[in-house]
Design a protein that fits this description.
Strand order of the largest sheet: 1-2-3-4
Radius of gyration: 19 Å
CATH architecture: 2-Layer Sandwich
CATH topology: BirA Bifunctional Protein, domain 2
Number of domains: 1
Largest sheet: 4 strands, antiparallel
CATH class: Alpha Beta
Structural class: alpha+beta
Number of strands: 4
CATH superfamily: Protein of unknown function DUF1054
Length: 238
């Protein structure tokens, strides 16, 4: 079954541009209904349509829209950015067995400037790091083969993520996967033209990029194939 999403209204991008200039409660509250109509409701429709696509190529990542969509309200308690609202609209699709969105995920957001499709690991805790590194130490050749896929290399940024200056303790310095083991994050990104946001091409383009990332995301989640119960800090959205 083919799905369709007509795109967001151009007014949605205008709203985000205005919010960027007026990121205050006294500006947002009188315009909250505009946010609901122009952004929140269409975003929920887009997530539902993406779920239909996920059911086709990665059914374990189908996520109810109310759980997938991030709130626009920013938690300013521990943030240097004290503005109360996010200026990116985002959603996350973790594996159905994940606890608190742990593990490798699919993530999507758009701003008034760009569209981002993401797959992988962004903010793992210590136990997760150990599990990913153990997996990569043993099966790095399989992982590197996934990364060599020509379409994946053409349509994404390639492997991204923060790295340590030295290989972690417990691994030999001359390990064949040394560059992979030094990482604290493993993810792929595709940056798409913001013009897609207001067209029916947004859904198929995001779904196409997510589909390419499936082998990569699924490989990383094999680190937890025997450990579905785990704790984690919340995923840090871009």
């Amino acid at each position: 079954m083919k799905t369709a999403f007509p795109g967001f209204s151009p007014d949605a991008l205008s709203f985000l541009r205005a919010l960027k200039r007026n990121n205050r409660r006294d500006w947002f509250q009188p315009r909250k209904e505009n946010y609901e109509t122009l952004i929140k409701l269409p975003m929920m429709e887009l997530i539902s349509a993406l779920n239909v696509e996920f059911a086709r190529f990665a059914p374990d990542y189908v996520t109810p829209p109310e759980k997938a969509m991030y709130r626009i309200y920013r938690d300013t308690r521990f943030s240097h950015d004290k503005t109360p609202y996010k200026t990116h609209i985002s959603a996350i699709f973790p594996r159905r067995t994940a606890v608190k969105r742990a593990g490798a995920v699919f993530y999507f957001h758009f701003t008034d400037k760009d569209v981002l499709a993401f797959g992988g690991v962004y903010s793992p805790d210590r136990d997760e790091l150990r599990a990913y590194r153990a997996l990569l130490a043993e099966r790095h050749e399989e992982f590197e083969e996934i990364l060599r896929d020509k379409k994946l290399r053409r349509l994404t940024t390639g492997l991204q993520g923060e790295q340590l200056s030295r290989i972690p303790k417990g691994f030999p310095c001359d390990h064949a996967a040394e560059s992979l083991l030094r990482r604290r994050q493993w993810h792929l990104m595709s940056k798409l033209d913001v013009k897609l946001v207001t067209t029916s091409r947004l859904l198929p383009e995001v779904a196409r990029h997510f589909a390419l990332m499936v082998p990569f995301v699924e490989f990383l989640n094999q680190a937890f194939s025997q450990k579905p119960e785990r704790k984690k800090m919340p995923f840090m959205a871009f």
